[in-house]
Structures are given as C-alpha cells and as structure tokens.
Amino acid sequence: MVWTWRLSHSIKKRFTLEYAGAFNPLYVVRNGELTEYKADRFPVGMTTMDERKKFTNNVVEICQGDMVYMCSDGYADQFGSVNGKKYKSGNVKKLLAQIWDLSVREQKERLEKEILDWKGCLGQVDDIMFIGTRIP
Asked: pLDDT: is 4 or 118 the higher one?
C-alpha cells in the first residue's frame, strides 16, 4: 500500500490535494458527507517494465474544515460481531461520516473503541492503520 499526496493552495484559499494510491482509497469528509477517491487496483513494484502501469493522479478540491483520511484494509477486514462477519468498508465510511467533526483525538478514541467492540474476543487478523488530518 502506497499513497502519495501533495497539498497546494492559492492566494484565494482554494486548496487542492493530489492523491495516487495502490488498492486503498482516500476519503474526504465535508459537512458529514463522505467522498471516496478510488485507488488503482494494482500493487506497487509488482509490474514488469513491459506493462509500465502508471498510477492515476487524482486532483481533489478540499476546503478548510474538511477531514482527509487514508487507511489500510485491516479495519474493514476485521472479523467480529455476533456473527463473526467482516466489518467492511461501507461501515468504515459510515463511521467516518459520523465522527468527522469530533477532535482528531476523539476520532482516534472512537475508531479504537469501535474496532475493539466489533472484534470482541476474536484476534486481530491484519494490520490496522489510519491517517487523518483536518484541513486548517
């Protein structure tokens, strides 16, 4: 999993973020509405010189107050609940849209509590990584 991003802005306070990713998307939450920017469906370093696959560079308009998130698939892939099902990306998106306006510290606590409650006594099946930042 690799992400690249560059943040730039103009004098008019218009912000853009450039994003390219392998497998895992970028999420932007503005006023409780989540927008997903898809990643390419091929890994970094696993292509041949003949294929010359290029990652898609997404230019994303962002505003002050937006929350920007990147995460590994470990959270969505965690088994849990009474039925032993995966958490799934749809639940990740719903949760982010609910907690986006909390402080970053409170969001971290909610994410940790949610996944611990979800998995219950089941072991963690994969790495879990979240990066989130609020656009000042």
From this structure: 118
